[in-house]
Write a structure and sequence with these properties.
Low-confidence stretches: none
Strand order of the largest sheet: 1-2
Structural class: mainly alpha
Largest sheet: 2 strands, antiparallel
Shape: elongated
Strand content: under 5%
Number of helices: 5
Bound molecules: iron/sulfur cluster
Length: 125
């Protein structure tokens, strides 16, 4: 799905662990084998995991991780860490290197920091 990188992240990009990419709108689509891996990580069988932690993706062609009532990913912890870090989905691992939306990039503190360091200085005339 992400064989064609869409361009470089800003030089010096470093994740600030703000968790904003886990709070943005949209699906966290689960690909082949990911549901089984996540169910195993949590010690659940696949039907139980699917029932408790997934929903139908927006295009109705796959399953997505579900959300908490405030819209954050169901696995985002209060300290902005990921409860399923050891098996987190490919979509999560690929952001923002292999995919990103303008909206999510705009919410990303690491992206904004890197951009601000590389923006040309405005000198007074
Ligand atoms: S699975 Fe983890 S990394 Fe992916 S959106 Fe949820 S909390 Fe964030
Ligand atoms: S939004 Fe950007 S800086 Fe924040 S956790 Fe996600 S990748 Fe890291």
């Amino acid at each position: 799905m992400w064989n064609d990188p869409i361009g470089e992240v800003p030089p010096g990009f470093s994740c600030q662990r703000c968790g904003n990419c886990c709070r943005g709108p949209g699906d966290v689509v689960l690909f082949d084998g990911e549901i089984e891996a996540l169910a195993a990580l949590l010690g659940l069988d696949v039907p139980r995991f699917t029932e408790d932690y997934t929903r139908l993706a927006t295009d109705r062609r796959a399953l997505s991780l579900a959300e908490q009532p405030d819209g954050a990913c169901v696995f985002l912890l209060p300290d902005n860490t990921c409860r399923i870090q050891d098996a987190k989905p490919r979509q999560c691992r690929a952001f923002p290197y292999l995919w990103r939306s303008a909206r999510l990039a705009n919410m990303c503190r690491g992206w904004k920091n890197a951009e601000s360091r590389t923006s040309p200085l405005v000198t007074p005339s």
